[in-house]
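[PROTEIN RECORD]
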Amino acid sequence: MEFDGKVVLVTGGGSGIGKAIAAAFAAQGAAVLINDVSPSAAAVATQLGAKFLPADLSDPAAVRALAADALAAHGRVDILVNNAGFQTVAPVEEFPEEAWMKMIQVMLTAPFQLTRALVPAMKQAGWGRIVNISSLHGLVASPFKAAYISAKHGMLGLTKTVALEVAAAGITVNAICPAYVRTPLVEKQIRSQAAIHGISEDQVVDRIMLEPAAIKRLVEPEEVADLTLFLASDKARSMTGASYLMDLGWTAR
């Protein structure tokens, strides 16, 4: 198994994309550490033979503690997958400031904190992989998502900068930018968009989520997991500082 003996930390690993990524690495023999804010993720970790590391990434001190716990578990983290995130949908003039601060912390500052804390051990080992789960919205914008889009754009800048700094140490850093993925986060967003636009949930999917796409379906979490495994493998050792679209053809226009 390709990742036998590798230690992987997946944030937001209790559901959706993170769960699919954690399962994929576990199936390839990795020692998987699952972080999530939800206690229900403990059952997911047990199911996968992984270790559950609960932490609320909206608390900077909790992120630092998570990094310390991850390093204590196996002495190092070989592969970091920054996946945790959530969505708030509101016009900018009504966007709650506390929601902005929390989203930027969880989706941009926490990935920086974890990268900062875990890179030294990767450097010492002479090998490491960081995969940041950004979004199509790391490249383009949609209305009513100021914080999410700002965080995901920032994540791409972080990806490029760190990639340049750590390349000589055998570490690669890449980002994945999927369109809408079939996850609980997207299901909640469908309901929010329906309320804002005054349309049905089916109309949100057809008119907002899939209308710009060439392929008229949602991305499956397992597809993101497959690309994550590839970017973490030695087959991708020449690939760093890049953002890989899984956007169903959104940006081909």
Summary: The mean pLDDT is 95. The first helix runs from residue 16 to 27. The domain at 7-181+220-247 is CATH 3.40.50.720 (Rossmann fold).
